[in-house]
Amino acid sequence: MFEELKKKIMKGSLLWSIILIIAGLGLAGWNAMNAFYAATGYVDFTTLAPEEIKSQLVDVDLQESFGCYLEEQETNTKTHVTKTTHYYYIIWTGDENATDWRYMSVKVPAKYGTTMDTLTDNTYNEVLSDPVSLSGEIKKLDSEEMSYFRSTLKQLGLTDEEIDESTLPYYINVFASKPSMNVMFIGLFSIGAVLLIFGIFRIAKVAGGSSVKKLRRDIQAAGYTESSIDADYRSAQSFDKKGVLKVGRLMTYYISGSDARAIPNNKIMWAYQNTITHRTNGVKTGTTYNVMVFDEITPKGHTFAVANESIAQEMLGLINASFPWVVVGYSDELKKLYNKNRSQFLGLRYNTCEHTAVEPSSQEESATGGQP
Questions:
Q1: Are 337 and 344 in contact (CB under 8 A)?
Q2: Which residue, 147, 72, 172, is CA-closest to 113?
Q3: Distance of CA 15 to the CA centre of its chain
Q4: 3-state DSSP: the chain helix, strand, coil percent, rounded to 5?
Q5: CA–CA separation, 107 vs 113, rounded Å?
Q6: CA distance 58 to 135
Q7: pLDDT on residue 368
Q8: For 94, phi and psi rounded to 5 degrees?
Q9: Residues 360, 349: contact at Cβ < 8 Å?
């Protein structure tokens, strides 16, 4: 039984574990360098030589700007109002002492437009400006952005050869809020690391046999021997195609995540069908069928998904016929009684008979009252 369950869990969890590992690697890997800079500090852009400029997070104190060459806009689809969200300005690399420099770009949120225009005016009028302190990520210009960049430089009097020699196809994508971006970078990296570790843990857990530890504890707590439960499991009736939800005479067996578990049937108090209809914009998109099982160990209940109403009713019919101490079926009155007056609820069936499974008769009663 245990080896069979381990194989079922491995088969069921392997795909999701691989997805978690791939997603974790992607998320952590994509944000690793940004998270590193966010934790240890951004690079001072003015200290970078042209060949050192690449994708990284930088702080920059701008004292020169050579004008705006591109605006980024967005239109509200409801109001049809168009507004400018970002401006692209031409800057150069290095500081005032740099002997090797290049023209490149900075993309700033629209709120910096007035400040950058003032900086541009001061640059052309040879007026010393107070530094404009910005932080952002270096990115590469796409073909459209690059064409506007080159066109503006030509208007400033540079030839194609001079542009090729004196420019870099990069821009600093300035953050609206550096602290917020730092939190995002570290958060995304952390989420990726957690997904990666969890995916590896799931595989290691199943391969190492930890996936059946809780089942062994369930069996021990119920007072049964593993040999008696092995026989009960093999004769139990299955209610799903994968055989992970089974009702035996002694226990009900199921898989929760990457753990095999079991409920002692003599502790079950109530069971009923829960049907959920899913709708999108008022249109029915599907129906989910669940069998709800409430026991003394877990009074808040278990939710077991089944394929359809027929299987739900078949499972409830077996419970109703085999375990006479279980209340089967739903009504608002039963729910109120269960939540508000548990002792009276238990007096309906649970406390009225021996908790020994009986053989279902050929005239099995069907389960009553499925919740819509």
A1: yes
A2: 72
A3: 16
A4: 45, 25, 30
A5: 10
A6: 6
A7: 45
A8: 75, -175
A9: no
pLDDT bucket at 363, cuts 50 / 70 / 90: very low
What gap in Å lies between CA 289 and CA 114, rounded to an integer? Answer: 60
**Residue spans of alpha helices (H) in the chain:** 2-40, 113-124, 143-155, 160-166, 178-207, 213-222, 226-235, 309-322, 332-340, 342-346
State residue 207's pLDDT score. 67
Mean pLDDT of 122-141: 92
**Per-residue pLDDT reduced to its tens digit, 69-124:** 999 999 988 888 999 999 999 999 987 776 789 999 999 999 999 999 999 999 99
- Read off the tokens for 176: 């609206």
Q: Which two tokens stand for residue 11?
A: 């088969």
Q: What is the pLDDT of residue 12?
A: 65
- What's the full length of the chain, in residues? 372
Pair 226, 250: CB distance under 8 Å = no
Question: Residue 24, Cα to own-chain centre: how many angstroms?
Answer: 10
What lies within 8 Å, CB to CB, of 193 at 6+ separation is 24, 28
At 281 the pLDDT is: 82
Q: Which of 320, 301, 311, 325 is nearest to 246 (CA)?
A: 311
Task: Provide the pLDDT for residue 208.
Answer: 65
**Given CA atoms 67, 69, 70, 71 in this order, what sign does their dihedral have?**
positive
